[in-house]
Design goal:
The chain is an all-alpha fold. About 65% of the residues lie in helices and about 0% in strands. Helix 4 packs antiparallel against helix 7.
Length: about 210
């Protein structure tokens, strides 16, 4: 006779569920660089045609200058175009090979001389009138030197022997005006320095 099979009871622990820990979703901040429009400037891709070609007045002036230059070129080349072209080429070569080194050397010598005496800020007041005077001499050189005085008199009926005195007078006026501006600037600088020192040396007011 078989014994009855007795099954032992199994101990089962109740299933325990741990609460799911979920971190709150955090949105990443979006870094946006402020575009040119926020600073008052237009984006590069939205530039208008006016920013490249200029205003209508500038276009009109440019067209008038080209028209005037073309008319002058036609009138110059009408008589002896080869001589005019040769003059332009010779002037360009003379300017680049002779005058430019002279300009640079004179400007360097002037700057060095004023720097040695401690007056480097005077360079501009000498450079500008000297450059304008040299430009006038370069443009009116044949008349200033009197080389074409007879030809000028026969072509215009006016005397051609007063250009040297006029050039000297204009040069004196240019340097005199530059000297007056330098004196005015020096006086204003000295006056502001005196006022600043007086304000520093003034004792504080008692309350």
């Amino acid at each position: 006779m078989r014994r009855p099979v007795v099954r032992r009871p199994t101990m089962r622990w109740p299933a325990m569920r741990w609460p799911a820990m979920r971190w709150p979703a955090m949105k990443r901040p979006v870094l946006r660089w402020p575009g040119p429009a926020r600073f008052g400037a237009r984006p590069a891709t939205r530039r208008s045609l006016r920013s490249y070609v200029g205003s209508p007045l500038q276009l009109l002036l440019l067209a008038c200058s080209f028209a005037l230059a073309g008319y002058a070129g036609v009138r110059l080349l009408a008589d002896d175009w080869f001589a005019v072209a040769l003059w332009f080429v010779g002037a360009a070569v003379l300017h680049d090979l002779v005058l430019v080194p002279l300009y640079a050397g004179a400007d360097r010598a002037l700057t060095g001389a004023l720097d040695r005496v401690g007056r480097r800020e005077w360079t501009l007041y000498v450079r500008v009138p000297a450059a304008l005077s040299a430009l006038l001499l370069l443009v009116w050189f044949p008349l200033v030197t009197g080389q074409v005085a007879d030809h000028y008199r026969s072509a215009t009926g006016l005397p051609g022997d007063g250009f040297l005195a006029r050039w000297l007078l204009i040069t004196a006026v240019l340097f005199g005006g530059s000297a007056a501006l330098l004196v005015l600037r020096t006086w204003r600088t000295a006056r502001s320095d005196r006022l600043r020192r007086a304000a520093k040396e003034r004792p504080p007011a008692a309350h």
